[in-house]
Design brief:
The protein is α/β, with parallel strands linked by helices. The protein has one domain: 5-stranded Propeller (L-arginine/glycine Amidinotransferase, Chain A), CATH 3.75.10.10. 23% of the residues lie in helices and 17% in strands. The strands form 4 sheets. A 3-stranded mixed sheet has the order 1-2-3, sandwiched between helices. The protein has a 3-stranded mixed sheet with strand order 4-5-6, sandwiched between helices. A 3-stranded mixed sheet has the order 7-8-9, with no helix packed on it.
Length: 264
């Protein structure tokens, strides 16, 4: 994770960003710290990277790396405003002992568009990550990749429209939640074939960034407004844990955007 010390909405690279509306770095830091501390209360380890001036979106650490079985695929951003973030995260991995690290040749916004299910890597495209980056991810990470096309610019990254509730095990399939209207017709058929028991989110769930959630297989950290989605998850046996990300959402981010999941 990366503290939003320099958080601001100075440009617009997604429909949620409006530079004419005020944004508070102080409030963003307070919300981010509560998210970080929530993970720690749930028993998770949180590593932090030092924020850098001039990179107001560096808080969205999910976009800077995909780590599966200790292999790291870095990122390459589409927006020039975020391009420099990739090198800071690359250095962090090197300094922390990750030797199996590859920087991509194709535009790849990491866990923003890659979701690991325990058996498959679901890979989004349509607005940010290049389709060719999906094949590159398969080659680098050595896992099968399923491509999904996003069609609504409000849900420009896969992690705004889908999250993994529980990774697959030897005896149980993966469980996911997703927002059907964010996907092309063919991609939606793929999702329904792969995950017939998925939680399908509503418009209201998606609009409050309810799909930008983080699950450890039991606890699901999601925005405080996503109570309807939380209730449906509770019916499935999950524990919803609510956090306020209203300031961070001004830049198009939520709990998942702020969180890179490192699978060693």
């Amino acid at each position: 994770m990366c503290e939003p010390r320099y958080f601001a909405v100075e440009y617009s690279i997604n429909p949620w960003m409006d530079p004419s509306k005020p944004a508070s770095a102080e409030r963003a830091v307070a919300q981010w710290r509560e998210l970080r501390d929530t993970y720690r209360r749930l028993g998770h380890t949180v590593d932090e990277i030092t924020p850098q001036p001039g990179l107001p979106d560096m808080v969205f650490a999910a976009n800077s790396g995909t780590v599966i079985d200790g292999r790291v695929l870095g990122s390459r951003f589409r927006a020039p405003q975020r391009a420099a973030e990739a090198e800071h995260f690359r250095r962090w991995f090197v300094e922390h002992g990750y030797r199996d690290l590859t920087m991509p040749s194709k535009i790849n916004e990491a866990e923003g568009d890659f979701a690991w299910t325990g058996r498959l890597l679901l890979a989004g495209t349509g607005f940010r990550t290049d389709p060719e980056a999906h094949a590159e991810a398969q080659e680098v990470l050595g896992v099968p990749v399923v491509s999904l096309r996003l069609i609504d610019p409000k849900y420009y990254h896969l992690d705004t429209a889908l999250f993994v509730l529980a990774e697959a095990t030897d005896s149980t399939p993966a469980q996911v939640a997703y927002y059907p209207a964010a996907f092309s017709a063919g991609s939606l058929r793929v999702l329904r074939r792969l995950f017939p028991d998925a939680v399908e989110a509503t418009d209201a769930d998606a609009e409050c960034f309810g799909l930008n959630a983080v699950s450890d297989g039991r606890n699901v950290v999601l925005p405080v407004e996503a109570t309807a989605l939380g209730d449906r998850l509770a019916e499935r046996g999950y524990e919803p844990v609510y956090v306020d990300i209203s300031e961070l959402r001004k830049a198009g981010g939520g709990p998942k955007c702020c969180t890179m999941e490192i699978r060693k």
